[in-house]
Amino acid sequence: MDTGGFVDEKSENRLYVGNLDLRINEAALIKMFSPYGKIISEDFLWHTRGPKKGEPRGYAFIQYSHKEEAELAKEKMHGRLACGRPLVVRLASEKHLEDISHDHSKRSLPEANRTRFVNGSSSGQMSRGEKVAAIKNKLKSLDEDEKRDPKKQKR
């Protein structure tokens, strides 16, 4: 797969660590990952605004001095329970490649589903036009029910 030159040497020794419990702090994260090699940087992400401002986002990035150290940490730590939650550990470049593959899978959806996905309907939300159409259909079915059974008239 062509990555468009996005994968560089740094991302080969940089790990994405996800599904972090909110009780895990930077020190605990470094302590968990330091047995596998020399950590040269750690980016623990925090919410910067909104109601969760100052709280951890639930993921971080750890960079080792060598690619082999990062791969060993990934192998040993992926799926390991931390505060009752299985850690998701990937090379940062794999996270990027996964995002690219998800983009391609969105394009292969049928047109109707793609439109619904883009409009956010997959999360239960409907566009204004879809809401209007649903209301019209509901009114039409109520009207038809009323014509079939006059006892179901409005009160």
What can be said about the biggest beta sheet? Answer: 4 strands, antiparallel
Rg from alpha-carbon coordinates: 24 Å
What structural category arises from helix and sheet content?
alpha+beta
Based on DSSP secondary structure assignment, what is the total number of beta strands? Answer: 6
In helices, the fraction of residues equals 40-55%
Relative strand content: 15-25%
Sequence stretches where pLDDT stays below 50 over 5 or more residues? 1-7, 99-123
What series of H and E elements makes up the topology? HEHEEHEEEHHH
Helical stretch tally: 6
Mean pLDDT: 77
Separation, N- and C-terminal Cα atoms? 64 Å
Overall, the morphology is: elongated
What topology, given as strand order, has the largest sheet?
2-3-1-6
Descriptive overview:
This is RNA recognition motif domain. InterPro entries: RBM18_RRM (IPR039157), RRM_dom (IPR000504). Residues 1-7 and 99-123 have low confidence and may be disordered. The strands form two sheets. A four-stranded antiparallel sheet has the order 2-3-1-6. The protein has a two-stranded antiparallel sheet with strand order 4-5. The protein has helices at residues 9-12, 26-33, 67-77, 92-107, 111-118, 128-148; strands at 14-18, 39-46, 56-64, 81-82, 85-86, 88-91. A hairpin with a 2-residue loop joins β4 (81-82) and β5 (85-86). The protein is α+β, with helices and mostly antiparallel strands and 155 residues long. The protein starts with 8 loop residues before the first helix and ends in a 7-residue tail after the last helix. The chain is elongated and about 80 Å long.
